[in-house]
Amino acid sequence: MTTDYHIPVLLNECIEGLAIKPDGIYVDVTYGGGGHSAKILDKLTTGKLIAFDQDVDALANVPDDERLIFVQHNFKYLKNFLAYYGIDQVDGILADLGVSSHDFDEAGRGFSFRFDGALDMRMNQTGGLTAATVVNEYDEADLIRIFRQYGELKSARRAAAEIVKAREERPVETTTRLKEVLEKLVPQKASSKFLAKVFQALRIEVNGEIDVLRNLLIDSHEVLRSGGRFVVISYHSLEDRLVKNFFQRGGFDKDVEKDFYGNPKTKFKVVDKLIVPGEEEIEMNSRARSAKLRVAEKI
After folding, report:
1. What whole-number distance in Å separates Cα of residue 247 and Cα of residue 298?
2. Which residues, at least 6 apart from 40, have a Cβ–Cβ distance to it below 8 Å?
3. Angle CA 267–271–272, to nearest 5
4. What is the pTM of this model?
5. pLDDT (tens digit, 9 = 90+) per residue, 238-256?
6. b/e map of 205-226 (b: 16 or more CB within 10 Å)?
7. What pLDDT digit, counting tens, does each position of 261-282 carry?
8. Can you tell me the distance from the alpha carbon of 215 to that of 181, in angstroms, rounded to the nearest whole number?
9. Cβ(17)–Cβ(293) below 8 Å
10. Which of 196, 186, 134, 132 is nearest to 159 (CA)?
11. Distance CA 265, CA 258 (A)
């Protein structure tokens, strides 16, 4: 595990939330630099940890440990691989939904507007869809939808119009070119926030992040044994809203299934209140600032 790859956020809080049993079976669906996984392994004796990460760069962080099974795939295949390894149910699931510091700092991956690089944004580098494809081939209506839904961008319509206009002259293929195209829309006092929303929207579309998260939440109830813990760290309101609603209401929509008394038929019991990083952690790792940790237990 390399801490320079990605500093694990809310590390101790995650481990406490999982309530790890030494002989239990746990899943880290977002291995990354392996920081959270290393701490889980410290708590295990005869237990097992199954770790998922579709990013080929994460392989360099995987230790030689017989208690660890590393799966180089997206966690949307969680049920498939648990079945493959003969595992019916697990005692805990950890999901750190943020992009790793490593990926943000690699200019060629295109995740950050701080560097000039190709508009890629694929977490799975062998995947087909890239941010450049979205920007240059999606029609204007779809771009508006993406910026509005995934970026919560007030100027979604104008941003889409500027992109469509610019790509008629020449393709928008780099992060710098995209910034130039949107330059007239960027507020002077909030440029980073604006661009972060644009890049977030594109990244979510490229990687299908919302659909994958929905599937994980639904699958979690099936793969967790009774009393098993589910620990989720999210970094923006779209993800956190899904997690919160699912834990508290048992679904994603306003009209959720209710019992005879009108209470939501939730599948989980919320453990403790929302947890956020303290000032000391934020000072050490500024990327932890927007993190929100929720813990639930399967009923």
Report:
1. 9
2. 15, 18, 20, 26, 28, 49, 94
3. 145
4. 0.91
5. 999 999 999 999 998 766 7
6. bbbebbebbebbbebbbebbee
7. 888 888 899 998 999 999 999 9
8. 35
9. yes
10. 186
11. 5
pLDDT at residue 3 tops 60: no
What is the predicted pLDDT for the residue at 289? Answer: 93
Distances in Å between the Cα of 39 and the Cα atoms of 78, 116, 230, 267, 273 are 21, 35, 16, 28, 23
Q: Are 68 and 89 in contact (CB under 8 A)?
A: no
* pLDDT score of 5 more than 60: no
Question: What's the pLDDT tens digit per position in 32-52?
Answer: 999 999 999 999 999 999 999
Q: Using an 8 Å Cβ cutoff, are 12 and 66 in contact? A: no
Q: What is the three-class DSSP state of 112?
A: coil
Question: Which CATH architecture group holds 108-207?
Answer: Orthogonal Bundle (1.10)
Name the nearest CA neighbour of 157 among 173, 141, 170, 171.
Answer: 141
Residue with tokens 């701490």: 39
How would you classify residue 86: left for phi > 0, otherwise alpha for psi between -120 and 50, otherwise beta?
left
Measured in residues, the chain has a length of 299
Q: Name the residue ranges covered by the structural domains of the chain.
A: 11-101+209-298, 108-207
Q: CA–CA separation, 119 vs 178, rounded Å?
A: 9
Q: Which fold has domain 11-101+209-298?
A: Rossmann fold (3.40.50)
C-alpha distance from residue 75 to each of 48, 82, 225 (Å): 17, 11, 18
Distance CA 70, CA 47 (A): 15
For the record, the structure tokens of 299 come out as 């009923």
The pLDDT score that the predictor gives to residue 102 is: 56
